[in-house]
Input
Amino acid sequence: MSELIDLRSDTVTRPTPQMRQAMFEAEVGDDVYHEDPSINLLERRAAEIVGKEAAVFVPTGTMGNQCAIRAHTQRGEEIILHERSHIVLYEMGGVAQLAGCVTRTLPSPDGILSWDQIEPLVRPASDHFCGTSLIAVENSHNILGGHVYPQQVLNGICDEAHERGLKVHMDGARVFNAATYLGTPVHEVTARVDSVMFCLSKGLGAPVGSMLAGSADFIERARLTRKVLGGSMRQAGVLAAAGLVALEQSPTGLARDHENARFIAESLAEMPGISVNPADIQTNIVILDVRGTGMSGKELSAKLRERGVLSNAIAPYRMRMLTHFDVSREQCESAMRTVSEVLQQVGVAVGD
Ligand code: TLP
Output
């Protein structure tokens, strides 16, 4: 089989030659003693870029979110967030298991919340209720299609939350994609949140690692949880070195990924049985409804896999395709030809 075209996630990117070279040359030390120069530099640069006092390097985005939640909350408190957020769906109930908190979730079709929705759920602790202490936003929002918070909406949530003594954490796994879409520097997107986690290992293309940033105090507390979770690494400067290359070089490539996602959505929108709105694509994530093909998402993705195109079914009739660093426009074109061939072979006709 010729080379696979992997649209399952932007987590699948492999380190570039520059990243591998930087890893080879990295100066390292024991990070638990704060003695790894590459990690120290990465943490300083990350904090600077997102406009916060300090940052900590964590092995995964999940660990970054969980360290943030632990550092912002006390056991028995409530966190308000979107019902389809990564923290709710894909972090193994870490909010309950690790922080001892409860989630109160809200719906919205695109993953974006507003203060008007959040406000009625906020409550102080009482004889009957857990008190709210944290709001978590996901920017861009993954599973509902890579949507980005309009900056005013996000700033509004932060301002109102702060007036009530609540903290706001941003799961910014793809905040660089969000900033690219908005055409603003990342520190403007993150200006009013108390903390932000972002992944080096997604659109930015590093092999491993995420950053959690916030106030110096907050990061000190987050480091303790990182240790509890076994995430305090030693000579991990080899990873940080790749992360630094990703941080400095990759953001400019994200616009290309967004164009490719738009191309994929436009191509799919023309195909019988597939429903997707290209105007909905803001970043690098395409969610498509395949009910009209007569196949489930799993069936269609299995047929694509046989022909070398990898994608994920995320619900019985919904699939997700992501663009990234390691897929070129030509590969997107080839993947779209493959989808079209599969639909023809199974006899999906216009109007089905
Ligand atoms: N997302 C992965 C899967 O876990 C779903 C993906 O393929 O998209 N926040 C957001 C918004 C994410 O999308 C992810 C990963 C994470 C956090 C966690 O990052 P990792 O995988 O590094 O723990």
